[in-house]
Design a protein that fits this description.
Helix 1 packs antiparallel against helix 2. The chain has one domain. It is mainly α. It has 5 helices and no strands.
């Protein structure tokens, strides 16, 4: 990996982390629950966005595929999504014996994330005629 690619990943990751912090602050300000809503929302949005970016790389952004992959997919979405936080939230729910919430959280995160990526990829591909 060359220095320019690493730079794109670093800048994208920084922006993604800041966006995540802003969203977490906005959502948690009103949250009165122990359910990890912020992490769920951020992960599902990240899955939708990666679906869009992947589809765009096959069409109008194909000539910029490496930049999109480095900056947006690895950097921005890598800094934005929160899989490590998802894992810790899951452990915390388990430790507090909130097994129903744990099951819902893990199920919703995975099902909505995969469906979001699939839907976004399909819709974006339809509009750009992949």
């Amino acid at each position: 990996m060359d220095v320019q690619t690493l730079f794109y990943v670093a800048i994208g990751g920084s922006i993604g982390a800041v966006l995540r912090a802003i969203i977490a602050n906005f959502i948690q300000a009103d949250a009165q629950t122990s359910f990890p809503t912020t992490t769920l929302i951020v992960n599902v949005v990240g899955c939708v966005l990666i679906g869009v970016f992947a589809a765009l790389c096959l069409g109008p952004l194909a000539s910029n595929k490496e930049f999109v992959r480095s900056f947006l997919m690895i950097g921005l979405l890598g800094g934005f999504t929160t899989y490590s936080t998802f894992a810790l939230d899951s452990v915390t729910l388990f430790q507090h014996q909130k097994l129903f919430a744990l099951g819902m959280y893990v199920s919703l995160s995975n099902v909505l994330g995969v469906l979001g990526a699939f839907f976004a990829y399909s819709v974006t591909g339809t509009f750009i005629k992949v």
